[in-house]
Specification:
By secondary structure, the chain is mainly beta. It has six helices and 31 strands. The chain has four domains: 103 residues, RNA Polymerase Alpha Subunit, Chain A, domain 2 (Beta Complex), CATH 2.170.120; 94 residues, RNA Polymerase Alpha Subunit, Chain A, domain 2, CATH 2.170.120.40; 86 residues, RNA Polymerase Alpha Subunit, Chain A, domain 2 (Beta Complex), CATH 2.170.120; 90 residues, RNA Polymerase Alpha Subunit, Chain A, domain 2 (Beta Complex), CATH 2.170.120. The protein starts with a helix and ends with a strand.
Length: 413
């Protein structure tokens, strides 16, 4: 009996204490607590934007509140579900440190009338407002460093993926920005550039602008600039001597004889140190003179000299030309079972050589050798090679000659 009575007394005390705690913490007992880092929420910012205005500075993005209320309500308050609201819609023109009052916004299960703001820090939020400016500005490249004399840096034709960029921000800052500048160091650069670079927003004097409040449409700018090695190459002519012209009595000059080119390492190595601009067959040239030829370069090689044509001068010394009528014909390489008849009764040729040999040369010393290697039945023209008596080793025929001939099967008339 005594034990049951003791148990009932203890239970009553525990229940009474629990009820007392509940009442103190949730019902009858009021308290005041401090809350820190309550976020500031901006309302009416879209209205501000429609007026082409923007906030450039705000005195604080958080506030501290000293609130009074029941412990039950105060327990529900924290910086995650509570904020203070400032209204920007009433701002109609730019200004510095415009004061704005704020009002707490509590969780949905806490009535604003149940809590009292005893103190707040700061008392008001101050904002600075300026006109919002949007502008297109050019991108400029600042080249620096030492350039090698063996390479050409085509900085004038550098290509940017963003030749201009769009900036947006407060007018006080945006109006100071003249251009965006990227800096490229060419020291040691021997290959073409294809890289992305960060840029700096600068004023008209090239000095950086503090542009933390400015937004742009690109963070980096890609630049492509060609760098090629420069090389001098000698221009030459491929000379085929003939018609009495030899290296001893013929002079060939090219003007200009050297040009400067640029290109990649591989293509310049393949090009070598000289370029053949033409092939000259001296048997096709009757007298001294100058001849124009176009300079053709391989793909990937650029002519930096600007010379697209050269003059090849040919000079003959101590040579004389004379016409002869050839009546001596020799048939060679006629296929078996075929017969050939030269239609030409004679052939007029022009020959050239030293004056002493030309003066002694006669018609009988000249023979037209006709090659029938590819002959077919019928009448056609065949190439004739002009030969001379061995007493005239320095004489040659000018240009190529041909004769008409009829080929038929042997035994046919």
């Amino acid at each position: 009996m005594a034990k049951n009575k003791l148990y009932s007394i203890i239970l009553s005390v525990v229940v009474a204490f629990a009820l007392w705690l509940y009442v103190i913490n949730n019902v009858s007992e009021k308290a005041d607590w401090h809350f820190y880092n309550i976020p500031v929420v901006r309302a009416g910012e879209s209205v501000l934007s429609e007026r082409n205005l923007m906030i450039t500075d705000i005195s604080s993005n958080v506030v501290s509140l000293h609130l009074s209320g029941t412990r039950n309500d105060l327990n529900k308050i924290d910086e995650k579900n509570t904020s203070v609201r400032i209204d920007l819609s009433n701002i109609k023109e730019p200004g510095e440190k415009i004061p704005l009052n704020f009002k707490p916004s509590y969780p949905s299960d806490v009535s604003s009338g149940d809590l009292e703001v005893l103190d707040q820090n700061p008392e008001a939020i101050y904002v600075s407002v300026d006109y919002r400016r949007t502008a297109e500005i050019p991108v400029q490249v600042k080249w620096k460093g030492t350039r090698s004399e063996d390479y050409i840096y085509d900085t004038e034709n550098a290509v940017l993926d963003y030749p201009t960029i769009t900036i947006m921000g407060p007018a006080a800052v945006a109006d100071r920005i003249h251009h965006a500048e990227i800096e490229v160091d060419l020291t040691g650069k021997v290959e073409s550039i294809s890289e992305s670079f960060r840029y700096t927003l600068c004023d008209a004097h090239g000095d950086p602008v503090d542009a933390q409040s400015i937004t742009t449409n690109a963070e980096e700018i890609r630049l492509n600039a060609q760098i090629q090695r420069i090389k001098e190459i000698r221009l030459v002519a491929d000379v085929v001597y003939g018609g009495g012209a030899t290296a001893l009595n013929t002079t060939v000059n090219i003007e200009p004889s050297v040009i400067r080119v640029s290109g990649g390492e591989a293509v310049l190595a393949e090009l070598g140190d000289k370029l053949t601009v033409c092939t000259i067959n001296m048997a096709e040239i009757e007298k001294s003179g100058g001849f124009e030829y176009t300079v053709s370069l391989p793909d990937g090689v650029t002519n930096q000299t600007g010379v697209s044509e050269v003059t090849v001068s040919v000079r003959f010394a101590g040579l004389k030309a004379k016409e002869f009528v050839v009546e001596n014909f020799e048939i060679i390489n006629l296929p078996d079972g075929m017969a050939a008849e030269i239609i030409n009764a004679n052939l007029t040729v022009k020959v050239r050589g030293p004056e002493s040999e030309i003066g002694a040369l006669t018609q009988e010393d000249i023979t037209a050798v006709v090659d029938f290697s590819n002959a077919e039945v019928g009448t056609a023209t065949y190439k004739a090679t002009i030969t001379f008596n061995e007493k005239f080793p320095n004489v040659g025929a000018l240009k190529t000659s041909s004769v008409s001939a009829t080929v038929q099967l042997a035994g046919e008339e």
